């Protein structure tokens, strides 16, 4: 029996525009007094007319372009009809037939995952259940929401997670959303079914997944559940209908919410209050021109500097961090220098908050040129101190006498003194050469930490013979 998971993701990203999608209300809704950012439009009062947010439309197209999509120059909004208390109008304005962007792709570790569509819609209000009552907050109602729908090309929970992280990085590079999964400004609904030999299990959509770990666990749970169900019932035909299951993060299980749901149930029709949206080729190209170099392109560039996959991914993780790396690197193509900078950035400098303005590339270059005269721990200490004080690390090294003493004559004299002062350690060494560590430590201490440990070891070994 060969089991192949077939996984697709629907990702919702809340745009961080100033105003909402179809009205002028303030779009921020985190830590805001409930129902203070509302108006007749986003409360769905009769007769209120929506006016689309131009910036939101442009950002949706921008994301579509970043994901390699084709942009529909002519597009329009539609009504998706359903009833829920947090949807005051009784319908959501969204896009079905003509989304802004279609047919994209995203490279996830060398595998091209197809993107079906990137469309724009509005968020709903929030319901809160308190002591048997339901409270409604409409501050979120009408906040612009982009939906990215992948084709079911993902084949494992881990790959789905990587895809999600890539989307998050791109959205953040584009600076159109903070894409925070825990906060809910990025949400994800996986669809999962299995191909078991030549049979497909029924498709399940999972709702309410609120963390990256949740995505991983929910998909794995569904794979296991569907496998087990197939073994018990032997499902022989796919119905083509989608079942919706919720994710219970506390119990780590999915549970049935709705059966047999299709787009026909929502009676979609074109939104009569909003004319079709048209973007000219020039407008689309102008949007494309605002897209920065994206994480995948950066990773390729960094790996060309002989950096490892791991390092390249870390450096490209966010735009600010990669900008710092590139500023220090300057035009250099020296792999050793690239690795040297990387080690400092993901090492000591990662422990503090650094800003690009305070970075002086020359100091890194100076330190790199003298790296053979400084121990690695001293280099780490110097780069931190240099960043914090704005001083050339070589000046600091000079002042604190941190250059390694490789002058064997001076070290030899010191070594003789250390051996004379530690007869027991010398006796121990004769029995067990491993114990030389203690004497190395003593000599390093005697040199004020400035000796080169390799040279210290060599001198001691020679004298002890
Ligand atoms: Zn409003």
TrEMBL record:
Q: Which SUPFAM superfamilies match?
A: GatB/YqeY motif, Glutamine synthetase/guanido kinase
Q: Which domain of life is it from?
A: Bacteria
* Stretches assigned to the Asn/Gln amidotransferase domain: 323-464
Q: Where are the transmembrane segments?
A: none
> What reaction does this enzyme carry out catalytically?
L-aspartyl-tRNA(Asn) + L-glutamine + ATP + H2O = L-asparaginyl-tRNA(Asn) + L-glutamate + ADP + phosphate + 2 H(+); L-glutamyl-tRNA(Gln) + L-glutamine + ATP + H2O = L-glutaminyl-tRNA(Gln) + L-glutamate + ADP + phosphate + H(+)
Keywords on record: ATP-binding, Ligase, Nucleotide-binding, Protein biosynthesis, Transferase
Entry's EC annotation: 6.3.5.-
What molecular functions are annotated in GO for this chain?
asparaginyl-tRNA synthase (glutamine-hydrolyzing) activity; ATP binding; glutaminyl-tRNA synthase (glutamine-hydrolyzing) activity; transferase activity
Q: Which GO terms describe its biological process?
A: glutaminyl-tRNAGln biosynthesis via transamidation; translation
> Does this entry carry the keyword Ligase?
yes
Pfam short name (any one): GatB_N
Query: What PANTHER family does the record tag this protein with?
Result: GLUTAMYL-TRNA GLN AMIDOTRANSFERASE SUBUNIT B MITOCHONDRIAL AND PROKARYOTIC PET112-RELATED (PTHR11659), GLUTAMYL-TRNA(GLN) AMIDOTRANSFERASE SUBUNIT B, MITOCHONDRIAL (PTHR11659:SF0)
Question: Which family would the database say this protein is a member of?
Answer: Belongs to the GatB/GatE family. GatB subfamily.
Q: How does the annotation summarize its subunit structure?
A: Heterotrimer of A, B and C subunits.
Question: Matching HAMAP family, A to Z?
Answer: GatB (MF_00121)
Q: According to its UniProt entry, what is the function of this protein? A: Allows the formation of correctly charged Asn-tRNA(Asn) or Gln-tRNA(Gln) through the transamidation of misacylated Asp-tRNA(Asn) or Glu-tRNA(Gln) in organisms which lack either or both of asparaginyl-tRNA or glutaminyl-tRNA synthetases. The reaction takes place in the presence of glutamine and ATP through an activated phospho-Asp-tRNA(Asn) or phospho-Glu-tRNA(Gln).
UniProt-recorded name of the protein: Aspartyl/glutamyl-tRNA(Asn/Gln) amidotransferase subunit B
Supply the source organism for this entry: Candidatus Shapirobacteria bacterium CG06_land_8_20_14_3_00_40_12
Name of the gene encoding the protein in the UniProt record? gatB
């Amino acid at each position: 029996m060969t089991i192949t998971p077939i996984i697709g993701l629907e990702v919702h990203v809340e745009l961080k525009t100033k105003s909402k999608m179809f009205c002028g209300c303030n779009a921020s809704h985190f830590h805001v007094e409930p129902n203070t950012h509302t108006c007749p439009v986003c409360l769905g009062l009769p007769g209120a007319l929506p006016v689309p947010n131009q910036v939101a439309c442009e950002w949706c197209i921008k994301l579509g372009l970043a994901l390699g999509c084709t942009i529909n120059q002519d597009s329009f909004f539609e009504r998706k009809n359903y009833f829920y208390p947090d949807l005051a109008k009784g319908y959501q304005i969204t896009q079905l037939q003509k989304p802004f962007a279609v047919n994209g792709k995203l490279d996830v570790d060398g595998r091209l995952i197809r993107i079906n569509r990137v469309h724009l819609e509005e968020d709903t209000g929030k319901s809160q259940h308190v002591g048997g009552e339901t409270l409604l907050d409409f501050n979120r109602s009408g906040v612009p929401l982009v939906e990215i729908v992948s084709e079911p090309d993902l084949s494992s929970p881990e790959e789905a997670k990587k895809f999600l992280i890539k989307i998050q990085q791109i959205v953040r590079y584009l600076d159109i959303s903070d894409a925070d999964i825990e906060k809910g400004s990025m949400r994800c609904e996986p669809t999962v079914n299995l191909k078991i030999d030549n049979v497909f299990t029924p498709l399940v959509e999972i709702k309410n997944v609120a963390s990256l770990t949740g995505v991983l666990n929910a998909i794995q749970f569904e794979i296991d559940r569907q496998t087990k169900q197939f073994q018990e019932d032997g499902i022989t035909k796919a119905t083509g209908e989608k079942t919706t299951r919720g994710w219970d993060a506390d119990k780590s299980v999915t549970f049935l919410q709705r059966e047999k749901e299709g787009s026909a149930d929502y009676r979609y029709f074109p939104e009569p209050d909003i004319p079709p949206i048209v973007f000219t080729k020039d407008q689309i190209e102008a949007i494309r021109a605002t897209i920065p170099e994206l994480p995948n392109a950066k990773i390729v560039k960094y790996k060309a500097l002989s950096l490892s996959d791991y390092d390249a991914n870390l450096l490209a993780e966010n735009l600010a961090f990669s900008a710092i790396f590139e500023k220090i690197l300057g035009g250099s193509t020296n792999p050793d220098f690239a690795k040297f900078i990387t080690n400092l950035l993901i090492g000591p400098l990662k422990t503090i908050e650094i800003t690009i303005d305070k970075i002086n590339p020359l100091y890194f270059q100076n330190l790199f040129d003298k790296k053979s005269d400084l121990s690695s721990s001293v280099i780490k200490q110097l780069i931190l101190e240099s960043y914090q004080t704005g001083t050339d690390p070589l000046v600091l090294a000079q002042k604190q006498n941190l250059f390694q003493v490789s002058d064997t004559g001076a070290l030899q004299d010191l070594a003789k003194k250390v051996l004379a002062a530690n007869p027991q350690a010398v006796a121990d060494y004769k029995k067990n050469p491993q114990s030389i560590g203690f004497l190395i430590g003593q000599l390093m201490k005697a040199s004020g930490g400035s000796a080169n440990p390799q040279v210290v070891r060599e001198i001691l070994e020679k004298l002890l013979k």
